[in-house]
Amino acid sequence: MGRILLIGGIGAGKTSLKQMLMNEQVSYRKTQMLDFSQVFIDCPGEYLEIPRFYHVLIDTSHQVSEIWALQDATKPRTFYPPKFAKVFNKPVMGIITKVDLPKANVEQATSFLTYAGISEPCFQTSIMTGEGYDPLRMRLEALNGLQND
Ligand SMILES: Nc1nc2c(ncn2[C@@H]2O[C@H](COP(=O)(O)OP(=O)(O)OP(=O)(O)O)[C@@H](O)[C@H]2O)c(=O)[nH]1
Ligand SMILES: [Mg+2]
């Protein structure tokens, strides 16, 4: 079974994205520790923002088939160090979140993800409009052979 590790800064939208894709109610609660579910491994944004936690992300990546790296489109900075995606021996997909907000700068977010060494296509998502979720659902199905009901 193909599990996915979600990484990204604090508030990037990892838990919301997971809730959307699992058809759960989208409600805000800060992630405090690694959170394992059948499909996703969600983690606190601190694990990316604080370098002494990088090893947790790297260790956890051994349990998944790919990594989804989120970048908040409204943030004028990134927490991904250059070529960070290359430390994982797994495919890393870029996801730009919060594209519905007026402050969103998709071009800048794309360049942050490129800087992080992510060459896969970047998906653009919004939990407000649902934009970008169909391609992610297809990706999930391809990975897990999940049936839509
Ligand atoms: N407008 C808008 N808000 C969003 C979107 N995605 C997430 N948010 C909001 O951003 C806030 C943080 O979202 P979370 O999903 O909790 O972020 P996280 O990456 O899990 O954060 P940590 O658990 O702290 O690492 C919440 O208030 C969400 O409602 C989006 O696409 N658009
Ligand atoms: Mg969270």
CATH architecture type: 3-Layer(aba) Sandwich
What is the overall shape? globular
Distance between the termini: 19 Å
Kindly provide the radius of gyration, computed on alpha-carbon positions and rounded to a whole number of angstroms.
14 Å
Mean pLDDT: 94
CATH level-1 class: Alpha Beta
Q: What fraction of the residues are assigned to beta strands by DSSP?
A: 15-25%
Order of helices and strands: EHEEHHEEHEH
Bound molecules: guanosine-5'-triphosphate, magnesium ion
Count of DSSP E strands?
6
Helix content: 25-40%
Largest sheet: 6 strands, mixed
Please give the order of strands in the largest beta sheet: 2-3-1-4-5-6
Tally of DSSP helical segments:
5
The CATH H-level homologous superfamily: P-loop containing nucleotide triphosphate hydrolases
CATH names the topology as Rossmann fold
Keywords: Nucleotide-binding
Pfam families: PduV-EutP (PF10662)
GO molecular function: ATP binding
InterPro entries: EutP_PduV (IPR012381), P-loop_NTPase (IPR027417)
